[in-house]
Amino acid sequence: xxxxxxxxxxxxxxxxxxxxxxxxxxxxxxxxxxxxxxxxxxxxxxxxxxxxxxxxxxxxxxxxxxxxxxxxxxxxxxxxxxxxxxxxxxxxxxxxxxxxxxxxxxxxxxxxxxxxxxxxxxxxxxxxxxxxxxxxxxxxxxxxxxxxxxxxxxxxxxxxxxxxxxxxxxxxxxxxxxxxxxxxxxxxxxxxxxxxxxxxxxxxxxxxxxxxxxxxxxxxxxxxxxxx
Length: 228
What we know:
The protein is about 30% helix and about 30% strand. The chain is globular and about 40 Å long. Strands 1, 2, 3, 4, 5, 6, 7, 8, 9 and 10 form a ten-stranded mixed sheet that branches. Helix 4 (about 50-60) links the parallel strand 1 and strand 2 (about 60-65). It is an alpha/beta fold and about 230 residues long. It contains seven helices and ten strands.
């Protein structure tokens, strides 16, 4: 499996179902922030099995959900169907962008952007910047160098590693310290950045997962070129 092929979500749900189906508290808080900012068009980038797509749709947002994985699209569609909710679904690679300039008021990128090399992460952030309207809002997470998996697996770059086994086998993981996280987000106005360490998942793999959690705003009046 590679970042181009996407996850096998049937396997992921079988191994740790609770981890992938519960809405993250940070997304609940972000949705409230979006309401205050009068945003409606939200892109759930790397939607997985649709936990945040469905939640945002239930809050009345006009949601576009994307993922490179066919099983992710199928699970998201089914979750929306069961809940009687609607969203636009688009299977696409985060490195290849089908969306127009200013297409969205906000982008949610929860635990997805860092599944790439450093150069690819920068490409994805450029894609996000392009598709946000002036003043549009971004929520995203990055893997932290304090994560227990940092430095393990096959090294692709100085801070990029690919696990050798499991559901993430061969998927790049780009890790950042605070300086690097701020550098990556320098094209935006950074609203907040904090470090989060999650406890090991019950019945999971015992990993200590650490992320940078960021909120940012697209700078008004800054021209961004169409992604290639």
